[in-house]
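Translate structure to sequence.
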């Protein structure tokens, strides 16, 4: 019996010795999972210090009001289309976002996008994201391949300066539609590549591209009755802005529609009503040291922008209050 007891005493003494030698030193705690560089942007609402971000949080808002607002507005995936000439589920005057890549012309009705805001698509072989923010009246199309990684996007339910914050499923970073890049989460500081697009009428799209296609469905679509009335009815006609954006310049009414063009640190807002009055619908102006031509189509009430070589240029159609919120030093075009 003495031998087992001796072994126990020896083990106890060894344990005490180890503690005397090492228990006074505190082992460093393991870093939290992900850390600031890898933390999901959704943590921004509850623990902003954990998340890398580049935006002032005074203009960061939960636009849905639910504790977890992600995907309450369902983005669309695997979209389905109908031939433009066969579309009977929309009126001729319906507003659509038009995108054309490699002769693949597609139209995305705002009546659908009011309920979905984002469409993940493949156009002309290019993975694209069609984005629409009803609160800012802004439409922007992006490439979905970012730094060699193919991303899919959903609606976060959060807003920055009243503009939609998108999130990618791969890293859960937040991407600002009008900042045109990631503003929170692991991808913070990464830009998005913008693709030229425009807003016009369904009838004008049919006339221009009779072989074009019009969005009719996809994963995430709601029952048809959901599209009978926009949840934003009357919003564009009211001066009220639902969420804070900071300083409001009074150069134009808050909801005046403009074409925003930014180049080389310079930016200019072109009021649509001014462009509509231009001789033959043609306006030429210099932004960032480069000359651009803006072509107004009276039939579709659309505007396309081209450079001196005739190449389409990405510009943003949106409400004045939103453009000046993201471009506070912008000029406002006025014909001489």
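Result:
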């Amino acid at each position: 019996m003495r031998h087992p007891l001796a072994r126990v005493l020896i083990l106890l003494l060894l344990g005490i010795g180890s503690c005397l030698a090492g228990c006074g030193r505190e082992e460093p705690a393991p870093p939290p999972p992900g850390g600031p560089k890898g933390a999901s942007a959704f943590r921004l609402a509850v623990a902003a210090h954990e998340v890398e971000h580049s935006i002032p949080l005074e203009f960061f808002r939960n636009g849905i009001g639910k504790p977890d607002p992600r995907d309450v507005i369902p983005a669309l995936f695997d979209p389905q289309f109908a031939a433009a000439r066969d579309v009977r589920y929309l009126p001729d005057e319906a507003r659509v976002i038009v995108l054309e890549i490699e002769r693949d012309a597609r139209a995305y009705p705002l009546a659908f996008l009011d309920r979905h805001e984002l469409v993940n698509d493949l156009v002309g072989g290019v993975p694209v994201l069609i984005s629409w923010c009803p609160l800012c009246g802004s439409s922007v199309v992006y490439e979905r391949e970012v730094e060699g990684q193919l991303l899919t996007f959903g609606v976060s339910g959060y807003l920055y300066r009243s503009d939609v914050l998108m999130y990618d499923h791969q890293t859960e970073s937040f991407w600002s539609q009008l900042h045109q890049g990631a503003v929170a989460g692991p991808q913070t500081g990464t830009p998005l590549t913008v693709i030229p697009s425009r807003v016009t009428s369904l009838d004008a799209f049919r006339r221009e591209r009779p072989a074009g296609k019009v969005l009719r469905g996809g994963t995430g679509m709601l029952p048809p009755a959901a599209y009978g009335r926009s949840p934003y009815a009357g919003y564009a006609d009211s001066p009220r802005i639902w969420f804070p954006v900071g300083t409001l310049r009074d150069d134009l009414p808050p909801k005046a529609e403009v074409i925003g063009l930014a180049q080389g640190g310079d930016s200019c807002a072109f009021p649509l009503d001014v462009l509509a009055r231009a001789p033959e619908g043609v306006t030429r102006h210099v932004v960032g040291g480069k000359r651009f031509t803006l072509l107004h189509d009276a039939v579709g009430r659309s505007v396309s922008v081209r450079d001196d070589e005739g190449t389409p240029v990405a510009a943003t159609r949106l409400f004045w209050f939103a453009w000046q919120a993201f471009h506070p030093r912008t000029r406002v075009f006025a014909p001489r």
